[in-house]
Amino acid sequence: MTSHRVLARVFFTFACFLLAAVPALAGDDWRPIDPSHLAMKASVVEKDADAEALFWEVRINDGAQDLVFSHYIRIKVFTERGKESQSKIDIEYLGYYRIVDVAGRTIKPDGTIVELKKDAVFDRTLVKAYGVKYKAKSFAMPAVEPGVIIEYRWKEVRPYRFSNYLALEFQRDIPVQSVKYSIKTSRRETTLNSLTMQGKAFNGDPSPFVKDKDGFYVSSLSNVPAFHREPQMPPVDQVRTWMLVYYSLERLSPPAQYWPKLARESYEENKSRMKVNDDVKKAAAAAIGDATTPEQKLKRLFDFCRAKIKNISDDASGMTDSDLEKRKRNESPSDTLKRGMGTGQDIDFLFGALAAAAGFEARLARLADRSRMFFDHSFTNSYFLDAYNIAIKMGDQWKFFDPAAMYLPFGMLRWQEEGMPALICDPKEANFVTTPISPAEKSLQKRTATFTLSEDGAIEGDARIEYTGQFGAIMKEQDDDVSPGKREENFRNRFKAQMSTAELSEIKIENVTDPDKPFVYSFHVRVPGYAQRTGKRLFIQPAFFQKGIGALFPASTRKLAIYFHYPWKEEDNIMIELPAGFALDNADRPEPFKTADVADYNVSIGVTAKGDALQYKRTFRFNAFLFPASSYAPLRQVFERIHQGDNHTITLKQAPAAQ
Question: Does the pLDDT of residue 21 top 60, yes or no?
């Protein structure tokens, strides 16, 4: 055979391979499609899965300034449910990161390719919780049907970040055949040469990092099941497979050695930030004034820090990125006093210095954030101790304070930090102390309303909802940097999601940035057909604020622990003026109950002396936050009883017309 024929045969064979692989090389960097994947009818990893990721690969480059994550995922869609769940894509990211170079396409079973158009990708705010903004690059994949393969890629740019303390996720909401992370550390090479890259896996067993021929460190995991969410589940990192990548000079030390050493080092590192000088002493004396008891003195210092120092860490501070870049770093409490502004840490350190100037023993306390993960004492690394409070010794106990948490009452911490071990940073005697959990009464939802019920079942009147404690702090953080119009729109949308026929007007939102007063919604509402009319009877659910809310735990079984963020209490007081000629026909009430010291529920229903109005009162208190999965059945029964009580209906009957 001549060389020309050999070349022709090679070319023909290569062309056949390209055809068999579908025209999948159109576009940059798309990989060929395996025909067997187009023919797949069911998931390999999980039986009856609606969709499955064939692979999800992430390459991480530690560049000159930025950390860049390059994602590439390919998904096979099997069912109509898979079509619904995978058609709309939200790539979530923190507000100060960037998502760039988004591309996608759909490959039909016959090999036809439909490209994602660039103008179909847009930005939106996805959710804002606990003061942190989340955004999303959103787009709808084209021509998605059962049987297709979809794939998309994007880059996430994290400015001024280094490849240390990376949280790598390995689970998605669908099963994945193969997950692979490749990390290349090209920056700060001289520093890294003396460090060792380490990976700590949680809730799974990804492979250890191995260096490949291109200089990337690679870790992978195969046949990863889908991550299924459950109502009121523990923090995601507590239950989902992920890995923490970090650099260290040494292997993990025993807890008995590591934590005291960290406490001493933290004390020394931050000693200057709690330094007391004459300026601090004068400010402390002026703030305390005529207060006499330790509690009163600390309350005055706490209020001073909140009222006099602008928290530039808060998104509602009014500080632009340019302002933050230009400002000088506060090196001491005196700097924070003089400038009248500082970060959340600056404000906490100032409070500690003022307390020390007033004669209190004050220490920095480092603690974990349980919205991310429950603290594991055996993992001896400071990564999870990233929250800061000030501990004050009062008698033989440590009390904890955080004036930087702008909207919480004195004596409370953010719910993420309550009930958590706090490391008291001390040069001599360091130890962990568990922070207290605020009782249910501290976080109250108080709802009142005065309504008029019409003969046709419409209800109309004025309502008011007040939030205090943890409720109030969360509501204020969500709304403090939002325009009044947007606040009203958000409230209207939330209310109508619960009660779609409600007509809202005269909406007022009060005390959004007031640290001491309750967060308040007041509004006028009309709901056509709220009560059902049958002949001469009206059937009405008096628990107005619970109408339209589904059962909290609909599933009969459960795998994960049950987790409430904090204890809370609810109080409802509703007056409903009855239509003329109607009276109670059946006014029984749901049975009250109490479960140990965890939950109690009580409802009273009655009429006014004249019999022309219905009076409904409801209280509910829940005073715990974490239960094992084995407690699901009795806990579910508790909330089923509450749901039944809230949906309790009473009957009104129209009296015969007067002769």
Answer: no
